[in-house]
Design a protein that fits this description.
The protein is mainly α and 122 residues long. It has two domains: 41 residues; 58 residues, 434 Repressor (Amino-terminal Domain), CATH 1.10.260.40. It is built from seven helices and no strands. It is elongated and about 60 Å long. One of its GO terms (molecular function) is core promoter sequence-specific DNA binding. One of its GO terms (biological process) is regulation of DNA-templated transcription. InterPro entries: Antitox_HigA (IPR039060), Cro/C1-type_HTH (IPR001387), Lambda_DNA-bd_dom_sf (IPR010982). It comes from Fulvivirga imtechensis AK7. This is Helix-turn-helix motif protein.
Length: 122
């Protein structure tokens, strides 16, 4: 096992190629241990060089609705009326604290994600 820090894009590509070769190694083998360590190094490099930002609150709600196969009408109880749901999802109105609490519970989303600022359209 010859593992080195990933410092460059070339190191990163080499690590990905090696991980692809040893990915399915039997647990408990040296190759499996190498895959575990290499995976951690690759993850750290990707977090630093290819960060993925969390979606804004409205996008997060829409993504979760899709995952849960929900329609706008399914959020009436949490948001308060069919037209209010439409206004929120079309960025015409901001979420209130009560809506955030209700949506966090119903959609199993972090309230911290839902309180992030976002632009409304006029």
């Amino acid at each position: 096992m010859d593992i080195k820090p990933i410092r460059t894009e070339a190191d990163y590509q080499k690590a990905l190629e090696r991980l692809e070769v040893i990915f399915d190694a039997k647990i408990g083998t040296p190759e499996s241990d190498e895959a575990d360590v290499l995976g951690l190094l690759i993850d750290e490099y990707e977090k630093k060089h290819y960060p993925i930002e969390a979606p804004d609150p409205i996008e997060a709600i829409k993504i979760r609705m899709e995952e849960m196969h929900l329609k706008q009408v399914d959020l009436i109880k949490e948001i308060g009326g069919k037209s209010r749901v439409s206004e929120i999802l079309n960025r015409k109105r901001k979420l209130t604290v009560d809506m955030i609490r209700n949506l966090a519970a119903r959609l199993n989303l972090s309230a911290g994600l839902l309180i992030r600022d976002y632009q409304i359209t006029k």
